[in-house]
Amino acid sequence: MGAVNPVDFPTAGEHDVMASAGAAERGSADVPPVLADAVGLARAAVVDLGEGRVGAHLATVGEDDSSASHYFAADIQGYRGWQWVVVVAAAPGSEEATVSEIALLPGVDALVAPQWTPWEERVRPGDLGPGDLLPPPADDPRLVPGYVANGDPEIDDVAWEVGLGRRQVMSREGRDLAAQRWHDGDHGPGSGMAKAAPGTCGGCGFYLPLAGALHGEFGVCGNEFAADGTVVHVGYGCGAHSDTSLPTGAGSPAYEPYDDGALESVAVRSPEPGDAAGGDQDGSPTGTSGD
Hints:
By secondary structure, this protein is α+β, with helices and mostly antiparallel strands. It contains 7 helices and 9 strands, in the order αααββββαβαβααβββ. It holds the Pfam family DUF3027.
């Protein structure tokens, strides 16, 4: 099928109204009669195509002095609101029209697939799994060329030792983007955890500052019970700060408490010489009873 530029097709509610006006009368008024009357020719062309049934004729639209487009409802399962478009043409003064192009196009209320998004634009943080490869885009603004060896062994060895032997390093733009994400993320100063914390990471013994340009604002948490191994902002904080102390009286008691007022004191009679040893006259042991 050829390509035809889409137009504002009639909606389903307009079809019956337009049909009553007559197929040849719909569309542009200046369509030459030989083209406007080619409805049967256009319909037959779609039928001969054999790719789906043809419904009612919907409109005739003039393209130029020698061509016009006929629109038909497409009666195809799964193509609700789509329309067949047949372009017919005739030379000026000609008494016969010929079919130039046939296309199946969506109408304004058609069910169409969402616009295609390239995979590299659909990748989100956390999508990368073991074995996946995600190369940076060409001319990535987050990366700039790193140190280039100049052939001097002393300089080159020192450069590699301090980490300048990488082909690319992060640009200022890349660092700024990363810093903004980390600042605004779950481990930034504005998070709920940070607002409720007794202290900030900048004063915590578990805070491991980053090197380089981000040294003053970010570090890694080294507390396995907190944000272990995660980049945190210096203004972030949590309840596992190294200076955290428990409030006075906190903790669980070693023994269950009891209430002295719930005990009942009972007087005990001294045993008489004739009493059984260790008991009263009825043989019951002596002692203190309580609830």
